[in-house]
Amino acid sequence: MRKLLQSLHERLPGWAADWLDTLVPLLEVLLISLAAWLAMRLARQLMRRASRTYGLPVNFATLFLRIAAVLVYGSALLWALERFGVSGAVLWSAFTGFATVAAVAFFAAWSVLSNLFCALLIYITRAFRVGDVVELLEPGGTPLVKGRVADINLVYTTLRESGDASNGTSLQLPNTLFFQRALRRWHGEATAAAGEDDGG
């Protein structure tokens, strides 16, 4: 590419060579922007397909697309700045500084992120669904907690222990807990019987 530009510089008159120095970076930035837009469009289509296939909630799709947008558009911005002559060393220093802060924030928010990941696994593996009766067991098989699944969000799974939405008790469990304990799930008629035992 550099050799092609150099040969064009030599063949063109001076005023055209100056315009070439301006137009080529602009064209490269337009191509970078187009590539970023296409990458995000592909990410949206993949997330739509995954949501339909695995029944992922809207919150997951939104979170994934926001993270993807930050990565794709951030990379495109850094690449475009480089095309305009911003020093690679400056960009690398800024990136490493940002990565350090992000790593510290990641470890500080590890418990929240692990709950997000476990919520995703609950949906993908179909371990249980809203309306199922589940029970967590201690390692020896002793029941720990039991209830009907009322809601699964990004951090907690809500179990209704007794009663209904207006009267009764419910329990919010971190999603990670379902991957640290044995899980019993009732099916068919056993679900109705288990729900009656809880007063549901």
Give the strand tally. 5
Strand order of the largest sheet: 4-3-2-1-5
The overall pLDDT average reads 80
Q: Please, how many domains? A: 2
Shape: elongated
- Termini separation comes to 71 Å
**Uncertain residue segments:** none
Largest sheet features: 5 strands, antiparallel
Structural class comes to: alpha+beta
Succession of helices and strands: HHHHHEEEEEH
Strand content: 15-25%
Helix content: 55-70%
The total of helices stands at 6
Q: How big is the Rg?
A: 27 Å
Describe the structure.
This protein has 6 helices and 5 strands, in the order αααααβββββα. The chain is α+β, with helices and mostly antiparallel strands and 200 residues long. The protein has 2 domains: 2-108, no CATH class; 128-197, SH3 type barrels, CATH 2.30.30.60. The protein has a 5-stranded antiparallel beta sheet, covered by helices on one side. The protein is elongated and about 85 Å long. The termini are far apart. It is a multi-pass membrane protein. Residues 112-180 form the Mechanosensitive ion channel MscS domain. Homoheptamer.
Quick structural gist:
This protein is an alpha+beta fold. Helix content is 62%, strand content 17%. It folds into 2 domains: 2-108, no CATH class; 128-197, SH3 type barrels (Roll).
What distinguishing features does this structure have?
200 residues; alpha+beta
Secondary-structure topology with pairs:
Elements: H1 2-11, H2 14-54, H3 58-83, H4 88-108, H5 110-125, E1 133-137, E2 143-152, E3 156-163, E4 168-174, E5 182-185, H6 189-197
Antiparallel strand pairs: 1-2, 1-5, 2-3, 3-4
Helix pairs in contact: 1-2, 2-3
